[in-house]
Design a protein that fits this description.
Layout: H1 2-18, E1 25-28, E2 45-54, E3 63-71, E4 80-84, E5 90-92, E6 100-107, E7 111-124, E8 127-141, E9 146-158, H2 172-178, E10 183-190, H3 193-203, E11 212-214, H4 222-231
Length: 232
Amino acid sequence: MKNLLTSTSVIVLALFLSGCASPSTSMKMAFQNDTDRLTDASKPIFLMTVTIKNSYRTSFQPRLRVVNVEKLDAKDSSDEINFTMDEKAMNETDSFPEGNSYLIRMELPPGSYEIRGLTSMAHSFPIITDYFAPLHSPLVSRGSGVFYLGHVAATVRERQGSEFRAGPSDSIINSLAGGAFGGTFDIEISDKLSTDEKLFRAKFPALGGVEIKKAILPQFDRAKAQQWWETH
């Protein structure tokens, strides 16, 4: 787990600070331009809203930077897809209890995937803290169309016992200050299409007149996340 989070932090920093390529596939989200349009030949698009907040160290509110997706049975980093945030996605207040919210739009070729989790950062000078909210959500892409996966609420709280940590522990001072070391994530997945659909349609002209089908992710499996963390 430590190794994955450390390497993910390096990927995010490289993308953010230097623009250098990473071993993983860095992907922009769909609908980058208002002129983008969907056709019968378009790959499936998966929509999701995310709210991420820190109730443990409230002066450090995580900003989502990457949605980490992997092809099922990924063998190496080339099977990892990092969907990076853009200005169209962000509604960042950096305050608690509002947290920071995002409109996620992932275009995926047909195949089987797993949404591994959410990589985020919080900056309170001079400390930068990295976080990773695990999802491990299965996702199958087939046919064409636009699909709504649900709303993910990821909240850092104080860790109890041996619960998985909210972030890497390679930089103890940074992790302690921002609550990544002493915190864990509570994660809830819910169906908020009635409100989220309006947000997406108002922001992205390509969705005009396009049906958005429900494909709500299964509820977060904490035991699975714990086991994965302990073995990585």
